Amino acid sequence: MNTFQKENSETDDSSEWKAIPSTETRSDHTSTVYKHFIITFGGMKSGCSDFFDYVSILNLKTQEITEVKLNNVLANYRRGHSACLYEEDQIIVFGGKYLKETLNETAVIHIQENTMNNSLILKWRILETKGAENLFRFYHTAQIYKDKMFVFGGADKSFSPINELWSLDLRMPTLKYFLSTLK
Q: Going from the N-terminus, what domains does the chain have, and what CATH number goes with each?
């Protein structure tokens, strides 16, 4: 049997939370770290059913927040989606919910750094995928390993829990049903 002991230390091992400026209160969103920026996408405004139509970018060096308007570039605003950094300059956004519609959509956010004014340029596109016509879900998790995005669980259109794992080869976007149940 393994046992763990706390090391004797003369320093204080406690960590302290510190408030950082933010924009409006938001829920059901994603935040993705890119270099020294945190890119926050989607979600709902607190206390109402309004969706955010802009992306918040927090510059961790300056503590300044920039809001980038979406201008309907994505087919739907969303909440309960996933977002993963891929190849150091793309965020892959999948699924989510918009009003009463559960989404089965993969979007790519291309990130380019503007070194002249220490800001970001975001370009969006919808990724055409095959093989998963019924992958509508929200509140799932997603991770990228090598060139594959793995999507697990979540809830379907009727809010029922899902116990499925899917993979998407990001080099050749065809979704594959990876595992039906996990025990």
A: 26-179 (2.120.10.80)
Residue 70 pLDDT class (50, 70, 90 cuts):
low
Q: How far is CA 42 from its chain centroid?
A: 9
Asked if the model's pLDDT at residue 83 lies above 50, the reply is yes
Q: How far apart, in whole angstroms, are the C-alpha atoms of residue 44 and residue 25? A: 8
DSSP strands (E only) in the chain: 26-27, 30-34, 37-41, 44-45, 54-59, 64-69, 82-86, 90-94, 97-98, 101-102, 106-114, 119-127, 141-145, 148-152, 165-169, 175-179
The pTM of this model reads 0.83
What spatial distance separates the first Cα and last Cα of the chain, rounded to whole Å?
25
